[in-house]
Amino acid sequence: MKELYNPSLFPLSEGIDNKDYVVATYLVGGGAQADLVTKSAALAIEQSSGSWFAVPGETEAVRARSAAKIIGIYSVPNYELIAQMPKDQTRYFILRCAYPWVNFYDNIPLMLSTVIGNISSMPNLKLVDLEFPESFLKQFKGPKFGISGLRKLMNIPERPIVNNMIKPCTGITPEEGAELFYHAAVGGTDWIKDDELIAGSPAFSPLVERVKAYMAAAKRADAEKGEMTLFTVNVTDEVVRLRDNAYRAIEAGANAIMVNVFGVGYSGLRMLAEDPNISVPICVHTCYGGAQTVSPYQGMSTEVAQKLIRICGGDMSLNVAPSAKFNALKEKFVRTWHIGYSKMYHIKQTFTHIGGGVTPGMVPYLMDNLGSDIVIGVGAGIHGHPLGPKAGAIAFRQAIDAVMKGIDIAEAAKNQPELAAAIKTWGIYGVDDYNKLYDIEA
After folding, report:
1. Is 193 a catalytic residue?
2. What is the per-residue pLDDT for 53?
3. Do the beta carbons of residue 352 and residue 341 sit within 8 Å?
4. 52 pLDDT exceeds 50?
5. Residues 330, 71: Cα–Cα separation, whole Å
6. Of these residues, 285, 325, 353, 383, which one is catalytic?
7. How many structural domains comprise the chain?
8. Which of 94, 98, 234, 407 could form a disulfide with 194 if both were Cys (CB 3.0 to 4.6 A apart)?
9. What local confidence, expressed as pLDDT, does residue 324 receive?
10. Annotated catalytic, 285?
């Protein structure tokens, strides 16, 4: 028997104890005449107990314990006959591979080295999903707050949360940022965060000074509007400084923190989320993630990234808005929300933070698709409002209130100058040509 046809490598899904395996699903491309069975087995062996050539130490006992198992190979299209085969084009198939999680236990870096390690250098291979059994997830605590905890903390039981990131993105002093913070907060913004491009303790905006200035602005705004403002200070830094940044930020008064997860790694996020001394919500920014996810044929999917963010403790996670600045596909946008929202054993939900060129005219579209359990993330849509950032925040609250009451926002704008100015400047998604607003896609 050909070794790479060995049935021990190809059990049915029904023939393995699923609680012992993490299942990876890949999109794989090969030559038109590729032997998919052999190629699949070679991939499984490469990423688990063996190598490209038989080695004496890979005994049957080692293979039984640690070899990955192929539980599905599906050609796309699903050819049956030789006559149907393409002659000179790449042939794609879906591969489902079950990895014994005893190989990597709760070690996220080692898991990634397993499921998308050496094989990530191959052309035409993308990890599109990971499925985790309850036995594996029991090792993780997930978000401290989740959607319900954040709503309770902020006393916002039903409507979408309005988030604002300070603009300009970077280069501003704590005093300059605090002034922008105050105007956005007093207009009704619920949660304000550092931009992803200002983090840690740069010389022009030291961490503790920034936190103290911004929280003072929050206190002043909260007293006027009668609502709480959450501030997520970006503690992203070299990993050796990450925990200390979080501690210093919280000691200075920060009521939430943020990390750029692809910069610090999933384990950096997990370290903060599972630290009992860090008792504030954690926002996750996904900048740089596109380097891993955006290729249709390489890397890994946004859905996989979102699962790992949720498992590792992100209370809120950025999801790029559809048909806005970065033109995310609608189905990707919706599926990423599903992964943060849907039941995952004991792991709390992760709030989807929708950002990237959002204006009040997109609010009806977002709420129509995802409902009200979302965070609407806004930068220039508040700070670039023609009547100023306070009016920009007011316009978003007006748009949300109109949708919650079933009122068309164009109708609501007739008696609300802030919303009217926003619509005049940027339009309404689905009515006006939204893509005209952005130069990035031009």
Report:
1. no
2. 47
3. yes
4. no
5. 30
6. 285
7. 2
8. 234
9. 64
10. yes
